[in-house]
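Retro notes, item 3 of 5
We never archived the inputs for the xanthosine-5'-monophosphate complex last cycle. Fixing that now. Sequence and ligand:
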Amino acid sequence: MVPISDRILILDFGSQYTQLIARRVREAGVYSEIMPHHAAFATIEAFHPRGIILSGGPASVYDRRAPTVDRRMLDLGVPILGICYGMQLLTSLLGGRVAKAARREFGDAELIIDEREGMFGRIRPEGSNAGILSCRVWMSHGDRIEAMPPGFHAIGHTSNSPVAAMADPRRRIYALQFHPEVAHTPQGRAMLEQFVHGICGCASTWTMGSFRKEAVSSLRERLAGERAICALSGGVDSTVAASLVHEAIGNRLTCIFVDNGLLRKGESDKVIETFRRTMRLRVKRVDASARFLSKLAKIEDPEAKRRVIGREFIRVFEAEAARLSDARWLVQGTLYPDVIESVSVRGPSATIKTHHNVGGLPSRMKFKLIEPLRELFKDEVRLLGAELGIPDELLSRHPFPGPGLAVRILGRVTPDRLAVLREADAIVLEEIKRAGLYRAMWQGFAVLLPVRSVGVMGDERTYDNVIAVRAVSSTDGMTAEWVKLPYDVLAAMSNRIVNEVKGVNRVVYDISTKPPSTIEWE
Ligand code: XMP
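Structure as it came back at the time:
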């Protein structure tokens, strides 16, 4: 646990927005952590929160097994903010009444602020509603407050909810029927800032500068005199984790970069060169491409490819690790969302593809794990990376799947097909960068399809490969939109691919969203 005194605890009731609450609080410079609503009271107390936020959730307080909290939490004397289900729970725990609303309220609503002092102290007037302070908020609830608990009064209402926000300023308990954490509540950020700074009195102590200092000193203590190893993939997480540990223990960290032969054009050299030159990491490159390609030779099924690649990776890594017999620690780039997932009251989300990450190393390996990023969100990892001086070209890289180009070649993976895809993919990326669109998208790449189509080049009939271009925008990879690439960018890609890549005579653009499609084709 990071040694920071101003911390906010978020108790999760299963809302899909719980993570967002934690991020907003951290963006306000205050450390926050999520625990399930049924966390033991002793754990909550030991966390020493300066304030507690109760999330929303899908349940109804009058369900027979409605999720609740240990009541003693209410007597801790720290400010509490209930959001949506959190509000209804506070109402029923404190002696008010909740009932089904005649109409479900879902979507935008205008919140009329009845009392500015306190919760809404930082709200700016929106529009020109003379004398009335109001703002846009986002609602999603079926139940509503019929009677407030003793000690509370309404501080905001909407046309549908007479009590859209309520407060008991004496006990410093506040509750909102709407969701301040989502972008559809434009001033929600100001409300959460007011809660953590104005009401809980937290200072802005959570910065990546302070995290770096504390993490480095605690890593030095834990790893005193010891050696560690780390599997570098070239991705953001393992890069930042490695360079943080490197700052703490210098060359007692050895990084291993496994070249599986499934990387993009020039990638292996570029990644190694950047690690060595700009970060002075000690990196051992293992060229295992022949081994991976021979194991993949007869495989077409996507999940079988993932399994083989995952297994070979572990074998190669284990063999290398065995040579460094005095290393006892293994660094992994686990992030906070993975940690949340494992304690989520909603349970781990269904596995659609078995994502093999370098994170998935076997527990039978005789290493002690060190996960220096397990308290951070992805955007915080990028900020920390910049703080550590990692070049932007590494930090702003698009995600690249562990199984690499193997899941972008539909069907069999052969050296010839890899060569075709590498060239086409390089052109797609060059054109995206040339158009200045690289940073605006989540991923952009080429896919080699398992079909051939007829074409004509010069006076010759051709019967060649088809390349699909995929470019998506997304915030977390869970859902995605296809990017409306300008026609001239698509034209340049297509023109260059058919002219420069031997064996391709057709280029198509993938216009599918996720869901129902996925980002990768396999
Ligand atoms: P999908 O295709 O499931 O991808 O929509 C979502 C995100 O995950 C990446 N991805 C993977 N990453 N191992 C990984 O490390 C995998 O097997 C894998 N499959 C997909 C994908 O690139 C996208 O960013």
